[in-house]
Amino acid sequence: MASDSALRTDLFALGIELDGAAPDPAAWRARVHAAENAGFTFATIGDSIDPGPEPGGRLDASVRAAFVAATTSTLGLVPVIAATYAEPFHVSSQLASLDYASRGRAGWLAVDDPGAARTWGATPRTTPAELWRERVDSIEVARRLWDSWEDDAVIRDYAAGKFLNREKLHHIDFIGETFSVKGPAIVPRPPQGQVVVFGYGAEDSESIDVALVGGATLPEIREAVEGARAAGISRVLVDLDTTADTPAAAADLVAQLTELAPIADGVRLRPAVVDETLPILARYVLPALLRTGLAHRPVPGSTLRANLGLPRPVNRYAKELAR
User: pTM higher than 0.70 for the full model?
Assistant: First the structure.
């Protein structure tokens, strides 16, 4: 795995939402490979645990991300997982495992999913304050669990029969308003140290690494980006809907992205119809951005953090013990 020590802060990240509508694993894998071959930095994978009124089902976002992890090499894989109602211990374990499977390319778009309360048999969180509290608590627990193993906790001294330094594992002892977690994790610290956490807007500024913001006009987008940066969020990307399905529409999108580059750290494109728009993006939009140097392909072997210009976090427990 490439080192993250020489971070670049001039990177313009290109993300894409792959809405997960394709139930066939082969079709889903083809969609992900098309995004990677095009040169996207990361792809978000939408989901909801609430089955809704539709019959049938599908694999959840983290499982589908794991399904393609071993067959991709540069694309960041960012499942959309609700922080409300789900057990944060299980979510953190899933994401740490995905980071290992992808060799350091895992992310997490942390959202609310109020409709999932009935699936979990939980009391619905009804106010914005309740949803926010559970979301940020879940993210905090995940971060503490990822740090609960120090980087050198695993020894692997086969001759001596020693495989784990118990002193390098830590209880997180988290007590929140709706749940408590003691820890430590059951998965060693992820390759990235902590999985990259995405969120919407600046509301979770103390919890997330990357904010997705939007706006109807360029001034509105600029204001949203500046607001997120003022809140202390490391990287701010523009969430942009696109219906580009012709070469002419692709040229317009390239012009729009060029206009956004001095303002934000990247974009996440949200195609209206993925299977129609993705080929246009791959043939006309990303090559144009790559030719001009506005965007760069992710480097094979590098982490998602490195490709977003984010440092590898210091382990909080190792840091505390060193004081």
Answer: yes
